[in-house]
Design goal:
By secondary structure, the chain is mainly alpha-helical. Helices cover 56% and strands 5% of the residues. It contains 13 helices and 5 strands. The strands form 2 sheets. It has a 3-stranded antiparallel sheet with strand order 1-2-5, with no helix packed on it. The chain has a two-stranded antiparallel ribbon with strand order 3-4. β1 (150-151) and β2 form a beta hairpin.
Length: 309
């Protein structure tokens, strides 16, 4: 197996986004080669892969991590078969995976806290955080935005590219569904226009946000030098920039927006992704809605009893 992996890396994995390539290489180097690397392709079977899964689970890997590693292994094996190598047969449906564990709580904040963070920040971070908190863009998409992507007449922001968090290279969006336009609220439109008039740094590529050297910002530095200090000043627990995305999803759902609307705003490829990631919020909204319905029914019951007495 390990003899074919270099061919797979140069022919298949190379076409993935830089962040995805790093994840694939981590799966290969940390798990697949150490445990399955010496296996011949023809010896990879449900039995060997099940033992591999069990070892991963025993080692503390979550079901989601194991599924991701299996996706990488499946890609390696299917590519080998496509290239004409003799391979063993495995069936993902016949593998037994560990039960889903209780997911760790995602660090987030509410609209009030988001507003406090924005107010405590300085430009260009004030406008950066406004874009994140009012649209739900991923941080990589926000940093990949250009001035030309802002359609002030139609009040839209076109999401067309992203920036890799480590290399800062421009790359496509996370998925086909991610490439779309999202509404530009009036409040955000005013902030963006003011930023472009007074704080924007002109640059050959027309990026909305660049540093003093004319390069796109690094996500880690935005967090370290602006987000965390602002959160500390506001007494808000530290988080990453992705917390803004969770904030807007939670606020929209709690405000009564349909999951399909939130899916479109976040540009998830499937509504099930939205339902899965924010089911705890949907659950609260559902409880409020049912309680409201029950109260209205009880009011009608009371009125009927009063009229008949």
């Amino acid at each position: 197996l390990k003899d074919f992996i270099p061919e797979w890396l140069t022919q298949i994995a190379v076409h993935q986004a830089a962040s995805s390539q790093r994840a694939l290489e981590s799966h290969i180097n940390s798990h697949i080669i150490p445990r399955l690397g010496d296996c011949a392709l023809t010896d990879v079977s449900n039995r060997t892969v099940q033992a591999f899964v069990t070892a991963l689970a025993t080692g503390g890997r979550t079901r989601k991590t194991i599924e991701n590693i299996l996706n990488t292994l499946s890609s390696v094996l299917s590519s080998a078969k496509t290239f004409g190598y003799a391979c063993g047969q495995i069936s993902r449906r016949e593998l037994t995976l560990p039960r889903k564990s209780i997911g760790r709580e995602v660090r987030s904040f509410d609209a009030l806290q988001a507003g406090n963070i924005i107010a405590c920040s300085k430009e260009p971070y004030t406008t950066m955080f406004s874009v994140l908190g009012m649209t739900g863009l991923r941080a990589s998409e926000m940093l990949g935005s250009k001035v030309a992507d802002c359609d002030f007449q139609r009040k839209l922001i076109h999401v067309r590219r992203s920036v890799d968090s480590r290399t800062r290279k421009v790359q496509p969006t996370k998925s086909q569904a991610s490439t779309a336009a999202v509404p530009m609220p009036d409040e955000l439109g005013k902030r963006l226009q003011n930023f472009l008039q007074h704080q924007w740094r002109d640059n050959p590529s027309g990026f909305l946000f660049v540093n003093r050297n004319g390069n796109t910002h690094a996500i880690g530095k935005v967090v370290q030098y602006s987000l965390w200090p602002s959160q500390d000043a506001c007494g808000i627990p530290r988080s990453g920039l992705h917390a803004f995305r969770h904030q807007i999803a939670s606020e929209l759902l709690e405000g009564g927006a349909a999951p399909s609307v939130v899916q479109k705003q976040l540009r998830h490829s499937d509504a099930r992704v939205t339902l899965d990631r924010y089911s705890h919020v949907i659950g609260d909204a559902q409880r409020v809605a049912v309680s409201s319905l029950a109260a209205r029914i009880e009011q009608h019951v009371d009125r009927q009893l009063e009229s008949s007495s």
